[in-house]
């Protein structure tokens, strides 16, 4: 490839609108005619490729904003080369102006059919050539700028969506343990209750309280207390692994777990695994009258919700079972089934050891 820059000694006053012309023609005298026509145009840089087989690599190296292709060339003709440009990922959108010595409408139709954007009879008129080069170059640059602007806008939108999601997560997470917070639980739990009512499937709740936590905090300090709660939260998460389950810090040293599509037997098994996992942490608690280590008490309740019943009733039932676990010596789980119907949301029947 040989390159001839029409205004190599002049800096363009319009760098964002610089017209980069690549001519592909096997006749050097045609290139010289066009170079002379463009030499006084400060915003146009002219490059010439004599070998059509090198045209695509020349375009990749130069980065033209408009391409002039001779229609008739040895080896690869202009129509074939135009199609090659259209099939090339980096060049498919480049404006292509076909040059030919004929004004035959059939030839022009073939040129446009091959993907040409324009057609000029050579030697072209100077004014017309410059006008068309600027027009096609500006259109191409505008498209690139629109594409860049769209990509920038989309990237900004995606980042905004990510930030919004991060903010939402922060609003729904407990800052200490990384579990969901009570706000999130109060939003999600009624949804799961309603889903269970529609599907006529059970839902279970587990309430957990760290035994003698106030004594732990008072004697070991709040930093140790915070670390204890983090470890307990991690132990719960390692047991409760289903995506649809809800694990939340309910307040202070109290945690709550919602288990959709889970009956009392299954929830009781989960509760016992959590109790053992907390005990296995072996966090020293010399001030506990239950064990030398941190332990937990749990209350478990389940029901098949009836439409129109208040989901709070199951929380109350789980809390009652938790209270009974504490009253009976702590470091244990107690369970019961709640019968909740439309006519009496408060009517309960205990079907377990709670």
What does this structure look like?
The protein is of the alpha/beta class. The protein has two domains: 15-147, Rossmann fold (3-Layer(aba) Sandwich), CATH 3.40.50; 182-337, Reverse transcriptase/Diguanylate cyclase domain (Alpha-Beta Plaits), CATH 3.30.70. 46% of the residues lie in helices and 17% in strands. The protein is built from ten helices and ten strands. The strands form two sheets. The protein has a five-stranded parallel β-sheet, with helices on both faces. Helix 1 (28-38) links the parallel strand 1 (19-24) and strand 2 (44-49). The radius of gyration is 38 Å and the shape is rod-shaped. The N and C termini lie far apart (89 Å). The model is unreliable at 1-15 and 341-353 (pLDDT under 50).
Proper CATH architecture of the largest domain: 2-Layer Sandwich
The portion of residues assigned to helices is: 40-55%
- How far apart the termini lie comes to 89 Å
Largest sheet: 5 strands, parallel
Strand content: 15-25%
Global Rg: 38 Å
CATH superfamily of the largest domain: Reverse transcriptase/Diguanylate cyclase domain
- Which strand order does the major sheet show? 2-1-3-4-5
Q: Please identify the top-level CATH class of the largest domain.
A: Alpha Beta
Write down how many β-strands occur, each being a DSSP E stretch of 2 or more residues: 10
**Secondary-structure element series:** EHEHEHEHEHHEHHEEHEHE
Counting H and I runs of at least 4 residues, what is the number of helices?
10
Q: Structural class, from helix and strand content?
A: alpha/beta
Query: Per the principal axes of the C-alpha atoms, what is the gross shape?
Result: rod-shaped
CATH topology of the largest domain: Alpha-Beta Plaits
Question: Residue ranges: pLDDT <50 for 5 or more in a row?
Answer: 1-15, 341-353
Number of domains: 2
Mean pLDDT: 89
